[in-house]
Amino acid sequence: MKSSMEKPLYGGQAVVEGVMFAGKTHSVTAIRRHDGTIDYFTLPRRSHPTLAALKKIPFVRGIVAIIEASANGAKHLQFASEQYEASSDEKQAAEENRSKFGLILGAAVIGVLSFLFAKTIFTLVPALAADAFKPLVPGKMGQILLEGAFKLALLLGYIYFISLTPLVRRVFQYHGAEHKVINAFEAGWPLTVEHVQRASRLHYRCGSSFILFTVMISLFLYLFVPTDPLWLRIANRLALIPVVLGVSFEVLQFTNKLRDIPLLSWLGYPGLWLQRLTTKEPDDDQVEVAIASFQRLLDLEAEAERKQAVQ
């Protein structure tokens, strides 16, 4: 069996009734429509030379990767949300009457802004809440720990409550299907429903792990900046967001490299524990969609390699 580190590293995300996978040259979404068929959405992956250069710089590359992933993911989420509900006739009419470029550009901008807004909220609310308890917890260390507790409670509470809705629960099932496909592929297993279902729904490179790392690393960085007065506390929290994201990305990559080392694999356990909330066991139909998406991506990647070899 091949080690997971000998294979290309693919990423993905769950969407409404489907799964998106991203590779080196393409990203592909497959969704299950109401009539039972599987529909696809494919985008080539192109990076501006400047961005490609930035993605080679440690700590900076994480910020660039996150922005690109947010923009790209928003395009696929837009497709999944619209196409799942549309009939074949409605789908054709929508494609004829709407500017595809405008749709993609708008979704990308919204995706990036939504990520930045959410990150800002999850940074500011815990800081304000901890400051409100300063009469009871006056020390800097106590304030940082309290802020971290509020941040973690806000994160876990948000995930728990949205998971109660049927739609999000199904998205979490597709999230589990995405991980199962990646785990099966990296283990060298055949990409069949039977084999993929045997794989774990948890994965070291998951974005859920990344989010938890941002909480942990932010608490460490806050030790080196002042917490008083409140305006300065808020200012340095906001200023540190890019630093937290960059460091968290590197930690995520590092823990993934250690996953096969028994004595060090525990470093990724906190993220895996969080994934027990953000993933659910998928059914066979959901796994079939995830496999279809990933197989389409592999075919496109192989075709791109063949074309590059000919040139």
From TrEMBL:
Pfam families tied to this protein: DUF1385
UniProt superkingdom: Bacteria
InterPro entries, per the entry: DUF1385
TM regions (residue ranges): 101-129, 149-168, 206-225, 231-252
Keyword line: Membrane, Transmembrane, Transmembrane helix
Stated name of the protein: DUF1385 domain-containing protein
Source species taxonomy: Bacteria, Bacillati, Bacillota, Bacilli, Bacillales
